[in-house]
Inverse folding.
């Protein structure tokens, strides 16, 4: 044996008393964990292949299965924990850069959980969100700085292009390629039914989804996959992807093996070639170059589409955002370090970038200090997990939130974080037809609609409690937030007081 | 030490009343004092105030700055500062009468001033903007000095106390104005500072307000982008700055400004059949989303030549309007109007979000 | 009828004087005194001037007549009795009233009949002669609200958002209501003769108080609004 042996991460526990050897688990598992031992007439497991995606557990009709953490442990060591040691073994065995999926799982501070929301008592009334009008409609886009009037004295009511959303949430970018056709179909349908937008990601727009264009953000990333005139014209908005919270500063690489059929056609690259997204846009090496790309897109679409510039939350994000706001962008999307990904180097995912809460607070304040907050709308993303996170983000200063991981969970994702394998048993992060068809786009869409409707009601309930009946009056209303267990510096950056103050 | 007003945000409830003569006839301030009496229980003795329009006809071309000072030295320093930018035409202590109910008086002066043209030219500012900046500068940088009125031919008078007492204290029976507003405050905390009383004023705009708004910080953080400094953390202060921004700096009409701060619900806008009106409302809500004021409020905005009454769009505070001859009355309660005009006619309650604008007839010399 | 002059009396003194009396009382020169007749269970009161907020709060059987307008929260949480207003009423008239009847000759402000409810044999009723403001019958849980629209024929009979959260009771509007938008959980339909029978008696009372001809009032289309369910929001929640 050349490699160092590692015990499997999980144990597959099968209750022999319950198992009927129906072999459903075997059929459901694309990783090949389960098999039928004919001579003994029993099911057996190969734990080394298990990723704990819970597919077999969910489908076992006898409820005979559970997946648990393997309790075989290395000797306890507070400095060298088991995961760290296993990563060393993996690299020693392979020589490879560690690759992971979905968002940063490390126990770093989640500021959302240290922020509490206000409610009205006595001095002004809470509002009953179910019965009184409660507005969640938002418009994203540049707001002119001065009112103009015609010769007749009437207001000239033309505005720069705006995105209208029925609630302050959009599904964030996930490319066709990183997720399946059916997952895209579910997102497109749900966004249309909800009156919000989903985002193509950088993989182009499948021709079947052009009818959902009014509810689509079309993305332009450094690889420019699938970008052409009709694509740009079809979307409700165009997003320039400068960076992504899960992997700031690096690009992407999709193996040629996955560039087949529709994926190849949608990306407009030949089958079998690698799809490489460079780390930078090679026409943007400086802020003035961003302006050039923004305006080239505006020119191509005759100034009818708002342009979103998506950046990862990094140390100097306030200054970067200020620059972006002056570059002609209509909307800035900031993606925090907990944002998900289909594949990213582990070290990057877990160590680069800053929390969205601090980034958002810093950006919103900087743009106000410079008097240009009205020039752009802000979208916050990077692990927005609930309606409460949305409300907190809005009160810190966001106009809307990007949501992806929560949307994938609604589609059935169990967050096993092995998207990079392409063998998603839930039919989401895969292109294998047998797996893809496991996700019914209509049912998926229905669950997305359910989730967002539930969030919208929760947002309304939280707003109602604060006596706010329009989301506009929540935006930037930091007086509605208090921190718990935060340092003076953290409170200062968030621009909120401590609970009790 | 208990924080002073401005260091802490203090919600408060209130009573308001106002009167205007459409013929521009001058009325003594005494009527407003009586109007506040039946609404005594809407205040708690921690703030009262009045604004009178047309009260300084002899100095009508000068900005009337009313200031509180904590000491003679502060006053001297502030006067020296004023002289760097203004010609002071006249200055005096504002006459008051001693009352047991009014204590802890600051030094209260008024100055009738005109900006020096040379200074305006150097700074490339128009007169009003210069006055605004001067007021902001004194109120944020000059400790112990506070400008609480800065319009022409108008003035506010306010103190900690019940409004009835505040009116007597300032001898309002000695003033004659074509319009008056009055306010009794019910703050939920007792830092007891005179500057925190209403009306709140900037240039000719004065605001009296009832209710606690829930959009405060969204509004404040937006308006502070444009050079306004919310030093008092009160709703009325931010509403006054919003009105100044929308009316003076953006050039909106009163109705348009009302369409921003008390915007109709989207549902109402969507159903509008007058397409020009519909487009206007969509435009205003989209352009100024951060200036929408939510939560309960009823306000009376005073301006040169008129008053505007406005309720929040849900109408969570009461407000009544009535008429008699050339006069129009506005108050939180009908009883307040009946007290000073028992035979008031056409009493009605304006709907939420629908501004009532009353102006002195055109051509009347103010 | 015995008289009390309310001039210069604050509300506590005035209400204390009222409680000491056993006869019917006429109160002169009301001007803003709150809570007049609060909790009163017998006697008739006749009010001149403008009474203050929360007139007849918790009223428990007495009859209050006001010669002119009344302010906000008339008959707040009223249990039984009658309140007859010869002018207009302010906002939130009949808030949470459980029984008794309020007659308003003129118009009502915002939120008239908000959370009006019925209990056992108690059925609260309110008749508004003029128009009603926005949020009429908000969260109505029981009882009957009638709006006649008699005073200003050109004005829409009710403002925006009537019947939001309605989950009980009935609302009658003397109009076809073509220009009124009702919420999803309530049904509006033309009133039948049978429906109108339910309000015949209170309309007769209304006509007697304010000298109207019932035939003229009934000679117009009525719309009746009822809730679809007593638990409109149950489906919105999921156990957690």
């Amino acid at each position: 044996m050349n490699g160092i042996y590692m015990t499997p991460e999980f144990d597959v526990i099968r209750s022999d008393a319950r198992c009927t050897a129906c072999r459903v688990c075997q059929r459901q598992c694309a990783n090949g964990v389960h098999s039928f031992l004919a001579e003994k007439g029993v099911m057996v497991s190969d734990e080394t292949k298990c990723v704990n995606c819970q597919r077999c557990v969910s489908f076992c009709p006898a409820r005979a299965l559970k997946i648990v953490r393997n309790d075989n442990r290395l000797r306890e060591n507070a400095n060298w924990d088991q995961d760290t040691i296993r990563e060393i073994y993996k690299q020693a065995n392979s020589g490879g850069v560690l690759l992971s999926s979905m968002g940063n799982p490390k126990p770093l501070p989640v500021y959302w959980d240290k922020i509490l929301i206000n409610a009205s008592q006595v001095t002004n009334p809470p509002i009953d969100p179910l019965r009184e009008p409660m507005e969640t409609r938002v418009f994203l886009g540049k707001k002119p700085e001065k009112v103009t009037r015609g010769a007749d004295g009437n207001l000239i009511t033309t505005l720069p292009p705006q995105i209208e959303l029925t609630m302050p949430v959009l599904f964030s970018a996930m490319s066709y390629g990183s997720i399946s056709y059916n997952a895209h179909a579910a997102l497109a349908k749900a966004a249309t039914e909800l009156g919000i937008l989903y985002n193509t990601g950088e993989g182009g727009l499948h021709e079947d989804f052009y009818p959902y264009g009014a509810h689509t953000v079309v993305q332009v990333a450094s690889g420019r996959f699938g970008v052409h005139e009709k694509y740009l014209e079809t979307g409700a908005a165009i997003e320039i992807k400068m960076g992504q919270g899960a992997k700031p500063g690096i690009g992407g690489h999709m193996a040629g093996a996955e560039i087949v059929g529709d994926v190849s056609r949608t990306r407009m690259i030949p089958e079998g070639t690698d799809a490489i997204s460079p780390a930078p846009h090679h026409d943007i090496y400086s802020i003035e170059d961003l302006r050039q790309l923004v305006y080239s897109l505006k020119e191509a679409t005759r100034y009818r589409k708002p342009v979103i510039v998506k950046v990862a939350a990094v140390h100097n994000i306030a200054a970067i955002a200020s620059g972006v706001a002056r570059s002609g962008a209509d909307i800035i999307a900031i993606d925090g370090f907990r944002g998900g990904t289909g594949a990213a180097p582990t070290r990057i995912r877990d160590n680069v970038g800053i929390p969205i809460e601090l980034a958002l607070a810093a950006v919103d304040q900087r743009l106000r200090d410079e008097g240009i907050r009205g020039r752009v709308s802000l979208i916050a993303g990077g692990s927005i997990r609930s309606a409460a996170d949305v409300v907190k983000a809005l009160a810190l200063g966001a106009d809307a939130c990007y949501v992806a991981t929560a949307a994938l969970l609604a589609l059935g994702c169990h967050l096993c974080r092995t998207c990079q394998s392409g063998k998603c048993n839930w039919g989401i992060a895969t292109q294998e037809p047998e797996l893809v068809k496991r996700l019914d786009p209509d049912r998926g869409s229905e669950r997305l609609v359910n989730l967002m409707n539930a969030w919208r009601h929760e947002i309304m309930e939280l707003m109602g409690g604060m006596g706010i009946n329009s989301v506009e009056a929540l935006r930037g209303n930091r007086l509605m937030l208090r921190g718990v267990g935060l340092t003076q510096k953290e409170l200062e950056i968030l621009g909120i007081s401590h609970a009790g103050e | 030490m208990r924080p002073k007003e401005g260091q802490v945000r203090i919600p408060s409830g209130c009573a308001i009343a106002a009167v205007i003569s459409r013929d521009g006839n001058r009325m003594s301030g005494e009527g407003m004092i009586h109007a506040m009496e039946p609404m005594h229980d809407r205040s708690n003795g921690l703030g009262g105030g009045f604004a009178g329009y047309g009260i300084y006809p002899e100095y009508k071309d000068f900005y009337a700055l009313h200031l509180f000072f904590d000491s003679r030295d502060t006053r001297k320093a502030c006067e020296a500062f004023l002289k760097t930018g203004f010609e002071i035409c006249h200055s005096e202590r504002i006459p008051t009468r001693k009352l047991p109910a009014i204590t802890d008086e600051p030094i209260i002066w008024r100055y009738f001033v005109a900006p020096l043209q040379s200074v305006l030219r150097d700074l490339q500012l128009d007169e009003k903007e210069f006055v605004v900046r001067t007021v902001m500068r004194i109120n944020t940088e000059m400790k112990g000095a506070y400008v609480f009125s800065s319009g022409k031919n108008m003035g506010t008078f306010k103190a900690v106390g019940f409004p009835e007492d505040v009116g007597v204290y300032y001898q309002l029976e000695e003033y004659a104005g074509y319009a008056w507003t009055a306010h009794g405050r019910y703050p939920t905390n007792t830092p007891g500072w005179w500057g925190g009383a209403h009306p709140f004023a900037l240039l000719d705009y004065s605001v009296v307000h009832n209710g606690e708004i829930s959009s405060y910080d969204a509004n404040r953080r937006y308006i502070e982008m444009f050079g306004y400094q919310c030093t008092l953390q009160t709703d009325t202060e931010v509403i006054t700055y919003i009105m100044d921004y929308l009316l003076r700096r953006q050039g909106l009409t009163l109705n348009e400004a009302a369409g921003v701060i008390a915007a109709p619900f989207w549902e109402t806008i969507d159903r509008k059949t007058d397409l020009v009106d519909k487009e206007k409302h969509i435009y205003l809500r989209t352009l100024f989303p951060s200036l929408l004021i939510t939560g309960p409020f009823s306000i009376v905005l005073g301006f040169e030549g008129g008053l505007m009454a406005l309720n929040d769009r849900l109408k969570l505070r009461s407000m009544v309007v009535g008429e008699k001859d050339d006069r129009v009355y506005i108050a939180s309660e009908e009883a307040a109007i009946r007290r000073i005009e028992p035979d008031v006619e056409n009493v009605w309650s304006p709907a939420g979000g629908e501004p009532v604008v009353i102006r002195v007839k055109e051509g009347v010399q103010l | 009828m015995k008289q009390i002059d309310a001039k210069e009396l604050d509300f506590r003194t005035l209400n204390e004087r009222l409680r000491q009396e056993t006869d019917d009382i006429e109160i002169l020169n009301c001007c803003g005194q709150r809570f007049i007749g609060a909790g009163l269970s017998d006697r008739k009161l006749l009010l001149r001037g403008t009474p203050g907020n929360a007139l007849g709060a918790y009223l428990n059987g007495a009859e209050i007549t006001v010669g002119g307008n009344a302010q906000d929260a008339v008959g707040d949480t009223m249990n039984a009795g009658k309140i007859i207003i010869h002018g207009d009423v302010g906002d939130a008239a009949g808030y949470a009233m459980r029984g008794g009847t309020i007659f308003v000759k003129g118009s009502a402000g915002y939120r008239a009949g908000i959370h009006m409810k019925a209990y056992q044999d108690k059925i609260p009723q309110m008749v508004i002669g003029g128009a009603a403001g926005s949020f009429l019958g908000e969260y109505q849980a029981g009882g009957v609200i009638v709006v006649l629209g008699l005073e200003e024929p050109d004005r829409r009979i009710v403002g925006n958002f009537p019947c939001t959260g309605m989950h009980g009771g009935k609302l009658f509007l003397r109009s076809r209501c073509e220009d009124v938008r009702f919420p999803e959980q309530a049904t509006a339909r033309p009133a039948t003769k049978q429906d109108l029978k339910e309000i015949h008696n209170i309309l007769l009372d209304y006509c007697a108080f304010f000298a109207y001809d019932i035939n003229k009032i009934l000679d117009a289309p009525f719309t009746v609004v009822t809730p679809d369910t007593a638990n409109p929001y149950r489906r919105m929640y999921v156990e957690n």
Chain B touches chain A through 46 residues (CB under 8 Å). Chain B has one domain: 12-210+296-359. The first helix of chain B runs from residue 30 to 36. The radius of gyration of chain B is 19 Å.
